Amino acid sequence: MLRLRRRVSTMTILSIIFSLFSLMLKSEGANHIVGDSSGWELLTNFTNWTQGREFHVGDVLVFNYNKDQHNVMQVNSTAYSDCGRDNYISIFTKGNDSVIISEAGEHWFICGVNNHCENGQKLSIDVAP
Ligand SMILES: *[C@@H]1O[C@H](CO)[C@@H](O)[C@H](O)[C@H]1NC(C)=O
Ligand SMILES: *[C@@H]1O[C@H](CO)[C@@H](O)[C@H](O)[C@H]1NC(C)=O
Ligand SMILES: *[C@@H]1O[C@H](CO)[C@@H](O)[C@H](O)[C@H]1NC(C)=O
Ligand SMILES: *[C@@H]1O[C@H](CO)[C@@H](O)[C@H](O)[C@H]1NC(C)=O
Ligand SMILES: [Cu+2]
């Protein structure tokens, strides 16, 4: 009886520790290096990159690119489809931009330089709460 109780309380403590730990991990937010080592560049396949990847609110997208050749525009779905550059939500131009995802739902990014977007330099992600 005593031994059983002790085992139960050890399990309880372990599970509390585990929950706290997962909460901590969750609130930290994951860093996603867009395109991995290829970066935010013309020849990267971003559809491929998003496959099997989960995005959550609080995560960070890191865009690495040559700032003389590219930029990052966060846009709405229309501009994503049309590669429209006139009404962006935000623009990033530093070449190593960290974008914190603060809302659930779909997010769209394009490169606004020349015809890069038309050539596939665009990213669409679905963010879970
Ligand atoms: C990118 O990758 C996806 C999935 O692997 C594939 O369906 C698509 O054809 C690729 N696009 C290009 C331009 O290679
Ligand atoms: C998709 O990415 C994987 C590595 O993440 C790579 O091995 C594969 O060749 C890529 N496919 C395409 C179509 O780019
Ligand atoms: C995207 O923004 C443009 C310009 O403000 C607007 O005309 C268009 O309707 C918007 N698209 C969506 C899906 O909200
Ligand atoms: C980003 O790049 C700028 C210069 O373009 C540099 O000053 C800064 O230290 C870089 N930040 C990181 C996190 O690499
Ligand atoms: Cu570009």
Radius of gyration: 20 Å
Biggest sheet strand order reads: 2-8-7-4-5
Uncertain ranges: none
The topology string of helices and strands comes to HEHEEEHEEEE
Total helical elements: 3
Q: How helical, in percent, are the residues?
A: 25-40%
User: Which architecture name does CATH use?
Assistant: Sandwich
CATH class: Mainly Beta
> What's the N-to-C terminus distance?
43 Å
Per the principal axes of the C-alpha atoms, what is the gross shape? elongated
Give the ligands present.
2-acetamido-2-deoxy-beta-D-glucopyranose, copper (II) ion
Number of strands: 8
By CATH, the superfamily comes out as: Cupredoxins -  blue copper proteins
Tell me about the largest β-sheet.
5 strands, mixed
From the 3D structure, determine the CATH topology.
Immunoglobulin-like
Mean pLDDT: 88
Structural class: alpha/beta
Number of domains: 1
Strand percentage lies at 25-35%
How does this model look, in words?
- The protein is α/β, with parallel strands linked by helices.
- The chain has one domain: Immunoglobulin-like (Sandwich), CATH 2.60.40.420.
- 29% of the residues lie in helices and 27% in strands.
- The protein contains three helices and eight strands, in the order H-E-H-E-E-E-H-E-E-E-E.
- The strands form two sheets. The protein has a five-stranded mixed beta sheet. Strands 1-3-6 form a three-stranded mixed beta sheet, with no helix packed on it.
- The chain is elongated.
- Bound molecules: 2-acetamido-2-deoxy-beta-D-glucopyranose (4 copies) and copper (II) ion.
- The site of copper (II) ion (CU) has 6 residues, from loops.
- The site of one 2-acetamido-2-deoxy-beta-D-glucopyranose has 5 residues, from helix 3.
